[in-house]
Amino acid sequence: MPFDFCCCPFFNRRRFVRVLPPPSPPIVPTGLQVQLSGGTTIINGANVLFNNIITNLSPNILYNPATGIFTVMRTGIYIIDWWINTDGAQEATHILFNIVTSTGVTIGASSPDAVVTLQLNGQALINMQAGTTFSLVNNTGATVTLSTSPIQADLRIVRVDTI
């Protein structure tokens, strides 16, 4: 800790006073949460089309519900976590979904073999430049049938750095 001298006029003495750094700016949460309800299937190679924006705390994270593509408008480190409820995948013996970015980053999650009815969860920690896009993609190799639960999928992205 840095110190500075201070004079005390009452006692005519010098003493050390600890100089504190200025406070850090407050961390403002920046994120977006979307959900899917009312879906039936997701064909192989297709993006998950979330149809409900639950929370939008940032003008720097955009989502296009027609394409399923998210765009990050500010460089930073982001956490993406998601889940999807599935109820079969034609002849496939497992389920595989990936976060795929426009810069070539692919981070996936898959079910164990012979399990196609489940809630599949995935997470990604990615350093993304402004303008990077990403989506959650079915890479199972077959069309995935969604469960009949009221909420079938959820994705949340949060910027975690303070740059």
Main-sheet strand order equals 5-3-14-8-11
Strand content is over 45%
- C-alpha Rg (nearest Å): 24 Å
| Tally of discrete structural domains | 1
Helical percentage: under 10%
CATH classification class: Mainly Beta
**Structural shape:** elongated
Alpha plus pi helix count: 0
Q: What labels would you give this structure?
A:
163 residues; 0% helix; five-stranded antiparallel β-sheet; Jelly Rolls; mainly beta; single chain
What does this structure look like?
This protein has one domain: Jelly Rolls (Sandwich). The relative contact order is 0.27. The chain is elongated and about 85 Å long. It is mainly beta and 163 residues long. The strands form 4 sheets. A 5-stranded antiparallel β-sheet has the order 5-3-14-8-11, with no helix packed on it. The protein starts with a strand and ends with a strand. 0% of the residues lie in helices and 52% in strands. A hairpin with a 4-residue loop joins strand 1 and strand 2 (13-18).
